[in-house]
Design a protein that fits this description.
Length: 366
């Protein structure tokens, strides 16, 4: 059964991390302090520059390379999806100047007075607007992060009252940016399909008018990064997630691999891609969504711009038949994607718990 919708608890002035930062206090409010078992062990986190590298896919070799280059890159893509669930894409075809422009307007928005930003409040029960998402009780711990999220596609998902008039070029820049990212998502899904030995258009044909949303995350410096999390551990409910890490090369994103939190090193101009729960279900677990989180820095701030790309809400999903066999029996039931999306946004971020919705169980613990 689907969960009963829960309204987001209103987060006000006192919980806005940028406003807390302005006070320049070394004391962290209790509501942000994590239980000892959840706190990031920053000194023990693996640094990928010393050990291993998250896979890097050269999109130009997929799209314009020779047959051998394309085959090699498709194989690398398959390995990335099977073993990591994350990869970075270089030469992705999106103008680097456009990436700079979207970062610029996002930062300008977050730097506005709080009274201006609160003209676009996050609507209870949704993840659109300015504030903190996935907060459902007064006792729930908060992330050291300010968020601004908007629905993009299809157009009926948009709440134009939440589209800011300042900065003046915010909406125009986001419109151009979102179209370019949408093209990239469609192309990446073609090559993911090829890597699985499927018809290259299977995902586009299956998804209908794909849902697309953007969330901008701003992480101010934190006086005690060892006590807080920038973003709680979770997997994404999307098919694909496209992450643009802002300039500054500040570490923040961590992924859970072999039960260890691994830093993802920003590469200038690259985009970080991760597999969402939807692709895990469709591939019957062959490509898995991966738990990830964000940590904070004592002296540096960090911006990230995240695009979520998923099937239409009226689509019924389940494992693709070609990927179910005796060696890999069906792991997930068929379900309506809109119901799953509702389940996802009405539950707090808690690892991969939301994926339980898709498994063969008669009820769920909420």
């Amino acid at each position: 059964m689907a969960p009963t919708p829960i309204s987001n608890v209103k987060v006000g002035h006192i919980d806005d991390v940028q406003e807390l930062r302005k006070k320049k206090s070394s004391k962290i409010p209790e509501r942000f302090i994590r239980d000892k078992t959840e706190r990031p062990k920053l000194n023990n986190s693996i640094n990928l520059t010393q050990f291993d590298n998250i896979p890097i896919i050269d999109f130009s070799k997929l799209f314009k390379g020779s047959k051998d280059e394309c085959c090699s890159e498709v194989h690398k893509l398959m390995t990335s999806c099977e073993e990591w669930g994350f990869f970075q894409v270089i030469n992705h075809g999106i103008d680097l100047e456009l990436l700079e422009r979207i970062e610029k307007v996002a930062m300008e928005f977050f730097m506005m007075p709080i009274e201006e930003k609160q003209k676009y409040p996050m609507i209870p029960g949704t993840v659109q607007g300015y504030g903190q998402a996935f907060v459902f009780s007064e006792e729930q711990k908060l992330d050291w992060c300010n968020m601004f999220a908007l629905g993009l596609e299809p157009h009926y998902q948009r709440n134009l009252k939440l589209w800011p008039t300042k900065p003046y070029d915010f909406s125009e820049t986001l419109e151009i940016y979102s179209k370019e990212v949408r093209k990239l998502c469609k192309n990446l899904l073609k090559y993911i399909a090829i890597s699985l030995g499927l018809n290259e258009n299977i995902f586009e044909e299956m998804f209908g008018v794909a849902v697309q949303a953007v969330r901008m995350n701003y992480y101010p410096p934190c006086p005690r990064p060892d006590l807080v999390l920038g973003l709680s551990p979770h997997s994404d409910g999307s098919a694909l997630t496209i992450l643009q890490q802002g300039k500054g090369n500040t570490f923040g994103l961590q992924i859970l691999k072999n039960n260890k939190w691994i830093q993802v090193q920003p590469i200038p101009g690259a985009l970080v891609i991760n597999i969402g729960d939807t692709i895990e279900v469709l591939t019957n677990g062959r490509y898995k969504s991966v738990e990830h989180r964000a940590v904070t820095h004592k002296e540096k701030d960090r911006l990230s711009i995240v695009t979520f790309y998923a099937p239409s809400y009226d689509i019924e999903l389940g494992p693709i038949q070609e990927l179910v066999n005796d060696k890999n029996p069906c792991k997930y039931r068929r379900y309506n994607h809109g119901e799953y999306s509702k389940h996802y946004v009405t539950n707090k971020l808690e690892g991969k718990k939301t994926l339980e919705f898709a498994k063969f169980k008669t009820d769920f613990a909420y």
